[in-house]
Design a protein that fits this description.
The protein is an alpha/beta fold. It has a single domain, classed as Rossmann fold (3-Layer(aba) Sandwich), CATH 3.40.50. 42% of the residues lie in helices and 14% in strands. It contains 9 helices and 10 strands. An 8-stranded mixed β-sheet has the order 3-2-1-4-6-7-9-10, sandwiched between helices. It has a two-stranded parallel sheet with strand order 5-8. It binds NADP nicotinamide-adenine-dinucleotide phosphate. NADP nicotinamide-adenine-dinucleotide phosphate (NAP) binds next to helix 1.
Length: 298
C-alpha cells in the first residue's frame, strides 16, 4: 500500500488523483483549506470502504507555520511517503500579502513547495520508488523570474506571477536534486494541459470571463489524471524529468540553470530564516490543527 500526499487534494486534479489512489487501495492524505470540499471526498471514501485510508489535513499552505504543522503531522504519522503531489493553486487578480508578510502566490506556489519537498525528503527516501510530482511547471524561460522583485511589490501582474511561480518550481526541482545527490527520489514536473477544474481564486470581472472560457475549453479532469498516472506508474529513469503534456522538456537546458537554482535556494533560506512568528515554526496557527479530530476522516 502506497502513501500518497496531495496538496490541493480537495479540488480539481488533486481530488481526482486522490480518488484514483483510494480506488487502488492506497493511503491518501489530502491537504487544503476547505472542510466542505473535503467532506465530499470523505463521503466518497466511505462509500469505497476507504475511510480509514484517507486523511484530510486542513491547512492554509500560504503560511509557513501551517506547512511546518502539516510536516510535523506527516512525519509523526507516516513512516514513509511514496508520492508527494504538489498541486495547490490559487489565482489572485490583485496582490495580497499573507499574515507573515509574503506575497500570497509566492508563498503558496513556491515557499510551500520548498518547505514540503525538503521537509518530507527523509520520509520519501524511506519509500521503495518515491516520487515528487509538481503540476505547476515546467515554466518556460528563466527570464520569467523577476529577481529584483520576486514578490511583485511593483507593477503586480497576476499572469506574470503565475508564470514566475512555474519557473520557481522548476528551479526548486533543480535545487532539490542538486542538494540530494544520492537520493532515489524521482522529481517530475508535469503540465497536464488546460483542464476544466475549480480554478480556485479571487478574480476581477475581466479575469473571471477569461477563466470561465478556460473552464469551457479545458479537457475533462479525467483526461489530465490519465496523463499524470501514466507517468507516475512508469517513473522516468532520470532523477529529474519534465513534460509539457506528452512532450519531454530538456532539463539540462539553460532554463533549468543550476546557478539560478542555487541562487533561489539561498535567497529562500534567508527569507525563511526571518519568516513569521518564531521563524515560521510556531505551533499555533489561525486555523484548526491538521491533526485535530475535526479534520480526521470519519
Ligand atoms: N487546471 C489547469 O488547466 C492546469 C493546467 C496546468 C497545471 N495545473 C496545475 O495543476 C494543479 C492543480 O490545479 P487545479 O486546476 O486542479 O486546481 P483547483 O481546481 O483550482 O484546486 C486548487 C486546490 O488548491 C487548494 N488551495 C488553494 N489555496 C490553498 C491554500 N492557501 N492552502 C492550501 N490549499 C490551497 C484548493 O483547496 P481549498 O479550496 O480546499 O483550499 C484546491 O484543492 C496546480 O498546481 C495547477 O497549477 C492546472
Amino acid at each position: 500500500m502506497k502513501t500518497v500526499v496531495i496538496t490541493g487534494g480537495t479540488d480539481g486534479i488533486g481530488r481526482s488523483l486522490a480518488y484514483t489512489y483510494l480506488e487502488r487501495g492506497d493511503r491518501v492524505v489530502i491537504i487544503g483549506r476547505s472542510a466542505d470540499k473535503a467532506r465530499t471526498i470523505i463521503d466518497t471514501a466511505a462509500r469505497l470502504d476507504a475511510a480509514d485510508r484517507l486523511e484530510f489535513l486542513r491547512a492554509d499552505l500560504a503560511l509557513t507555520t501551517e506547512n511546518h504543522r502539516v510536516l510535523e503531522r506527516l512525519r509523526t504519522t507516516y513512516p514513509a511517503v511514496d508520492i508527494l503531489v504538489l498541486g495547490a493553486r490559487y489565482y489572485r487578480s490583485t496582490r495580497s500579502v499573507t499574515a507573515e508578510g509574503f506575497e500570497a502566490s509566492f508563498a503558496l506556489f513556491y515557499l510551500s513547495r520548498h518547505l514540503l519537498t525538503y521537509g518530507l525528503a527523509d520520509s520519501l527516501e524511506r519509500a521503495a520508488t518515491p516520487m515528487i510530482l509538481d503540476l505547476s511547471g515546467p515554466g518556460g524561460e528563466l527570464s520569467r523570474i523577476r529577481w529584483d522583485d520576486l514578490q511583485f511589490t511593483e507593477s503586480y501582474d497576476p499572469d506574470a506571477v503565475m508564470h514566475q511561480c512555474g519557473k520557481l518550481s522548476d528551479l526548486l526541482a533543480v535545487g532539490f536534486t542538486d542538494d540530494h545527490p544520492h537520493s532515489h527520489i524521482r522529481y517530475l514536473l508535469l503540465h497536464p494541459g488546460l483542464t476544466s477544474t475549480g480554478f480556485t481564486g479571487e478574480y476581477s470581472t475581466t479575469d473571471r470571463t477569461v477563466v470561465e472560457d478556460m473552464r469551457r475549453r479545458g479537457q475533462p479532469v479525467e483526461a489530465a489524471v490519465a496523463r499524470i498516472m501514466r507517468r507516475l506508474d512508469n517513473p522516468p529513469a532520470p532523477r529529474l524529468s519534465a513534460y509539457m503534456q506528452e512532450n519531454a522538456v530538456d532539463t539540462t537546458s539553460a532554463a533549468f540553470d543550476l546557478g539560478a537554482a542555487r541562487r533561489l535556494r539561498d535567497h529562500t533560506r534567508e527569507l525563511l530564516a526571518t519568516a513569521g512568528p518564531a521563524n515560521g515554526r510556531s505551533n499555533t496557527g489561525p486555523i484548526d490543527s491538521p491533526g485535530s479530530a475535526a479534520d480526521r476522516p470519519v
